[in-house]
Amino acid sequence: MAGLPAYLFRRLQSVMNAAARLIYGLRHSDHISDTLVSLHWLRAQESVWFKTAVLMYKATHGTAPAYLSQLVRVTDLPGRRSLRSARTNRLLVPSVKLSTILNSLPDNVISGPSLSTFCQRLKTFLYQTSFPDIITDPW
What we know:
By secondary structure, the protein is mostly helical. It has helices at about 5-25, 35-40, 45-60, 65-70, 100-105, 105-110, 115-130. The longest helix is centred in the first third of the chain and has 19 residues, at about 5-25.
């Protein structure tokens, strides 16, 4: 679902909001952000970002299927040892822009030592981005 037009994300978000209202028995006029946070649901766009970033993390750390790992290249290449980018976990940007999702994340999220730490930091970052008035900074 990465790369969907905004109007399709709005429709998907509308379905998610309706499901949250159904779970909590809310009216259509009730505010939904607190409900999404209490359900630990990311918004539709951030949910797609989360899934894509986790897949990219797995691909760069060798835990994704081989056909995906072959498509992902880290900037740490033999001829680039002296560059600052060689010390980061940034990805080379291919013609498809999916690597920009992982490259746009803060270093403290990307540098998670394990998949569970990465997922925790990523979800916290996306919650803070999606619900800035409700979620406070844990770091």
